[in-house]
Every structure is written in structure tokens, then in C-alpha cells.
Write a structure and sequence with these properties.
It is built from eleven helices and twelve strands. It has 324 residues and is α+β, with helices and mostly antiparallel strands. α2 packs across α11, α5 packs across α6 and α10 crosses α11. The N and C termini lie far apart (73 Å).
Length: 324
Amino acid sequence: MSKLVTIYSISFILLFLSSVVSAQYRFSTGTYPYPSELYQELDTQIDVFLQNKLINKISKNRNYRRLLKQKRMAVGLVDLRDPENIKYATVNGNHMMYSASLPKIAVLLSALECVKSNILEYDEALKKDMRLMIAKSNNAATTRVIERMGLDKIAQVLQSDDYNFYDINYGGGLWVGKKYAKADVRKPDPLFGISHGATVHQVCRFYTMLAYGKLVSSVYNEEMQKYLVRPEINHKFVKTLKRLDSNLLLYRKSGSWRNFHSDSVLIDGKNGRRYILVALIEDPGGSKICRDLIKVAESVLGIGKKPAPLIIDKEKPIMREAKP
């Protein structure tokens, strides 16, 4: 009898440990990160065909065409389906715009760089604030994280040789020059005086580095994925993507303030849904534009397109594709 009890006890313990491991592993069951040695800088991966398709597809909409011309809209798209040969396309990619809460990804990166360097303690308060900052875009939590390291440290990380997420020679980039609180000291970006800004190019680079495990370290890159995955605000990109496939893993950060709307996402899913999409828009209808851009991007990538039907010529029994 005692042996039987022992066997049941061991089985229960193993089952419990298995569930714990499963819970801890749930953030790591996706495709990313790809092997870091396969990482490619986006500047070297601009695809002319993808670029032309993106421009032509967006330009079919008269409002989008107007916004692009006025530089009130910028879009970046990275095709990640082939880890050894990613493809990149962008419109107004190096044009810096006010981006509201999207640059909170820079606060997350800087905080984990400080943790790695033992400048910050990786305590429960910091972990809770960083999740609130990203998943719910909580301004008070973001301000607390910024206060623990300072704006100068964030600027140092963004301009470091490891990242160059803000480059004065290439239109600026990611920048956080103010706490997310009223009436506070500003450290605006050197080029345009923006407190919370971004270019789609640098945001695309951020997510590409995340997808290849190149942020901070392999351990902290995984931590970043945990904070960015499963966003808790269901609007813009997320609203459309969830309708298309509720099982997608989404690493995402967005932002909105008055007429400024921004969104960014790294997608991990089936049926070809492995790509990055970033949009910065200055327009009252920016939120709807973001929702609609998912379908634009997937059309450009050929996702969801049905193959052409096959026709059998009875006189010549050779199967061929029907002309579109």
C-alpha cells in the first residue's frame, strides 16, 4: 500500500512540475527568436519588388496618397518568412514623427540594459511596471520606470553603437525625451525637438533585432518578448489581426494622442503570417487607417491569396494555371 501511495505521490509531483514548466515556457513556444547569426540589417535587405508593391497598393487610396505626399504617414514592412533572406520595404521610412506611446519600447530596452549592467534591480515592482507600460500603455508605470534610470540613460542606450536607434545622420529615430506625465522637464530630440518620437525604419529595426535575439542579450531578449507579447489593448492592428486569426502571437506597441496614431507589431503565426508592420500617421482617422493597413500589408505579401485554378486541356493533357 505504501508503494502505491509513493507512486501516486511521485506522479502528482511530476504532473505539477510539468504544468509549472509549461506555464513558464508558454512565451517561448513561438518561432522567434531566429538564430542570431542569421540577423541581417534592414538597409541591406530592401526589396525593390516588395517596395513597389507596397507603394502602389497604398497609393491606390487617395487619402493615403495625400498623407504620404505631405509626410503625415509612414509605413514599414518586413517579410520574415525566410529567416536567411528577409525582405524590407518602407515609405517615408526615415521621416521622424511624434509617436505618443510607441517609444515606450525604448524605455523597456533601456531598463533591461540597466538590469543587465546592475544599474537597476530586477525586482517585482519593475517587472510589474514594465508589463503595465507595454501591455496596457500605462503612463504612470512608464514614468516610474523612467525615473529609476533617467532620460540621459535612455538617450545613451538609443544612440549607442550597439543599436543606433537614434541616428542624427539618418533622420533621427526612436526617442524618449520626457516622462509620460504633465509639466515635466523635457529632453527633446536634437533634430526636431520631439519628446516622444520615432521613424518606421528604426522601429522596424527594433522588431527585427527582437526576432533574431539581438536585444540586450539572449536572456533579456526573451524577457522583452514576454513583455511585448499578448497586448491587452484591442484596437488598430490587433483588432484586425485577431479577426483574421485568433491564434497569432503578437509582439506589439502602439500609441495615440490627438491626431497622432502609431502602431507596430511583430507577428508569429501560420499561413505565412510572419512579418513586421509599423505605421506612423497624423490624421483624425489614423486608428482606422491602421486597421485597414493590415489587409494592405497582407495583400502586398500575398498572404491569404487563393492559388489560380488549374485547367486541363483535353486535347493536350497538360495541367496549367489559369490566367488571372
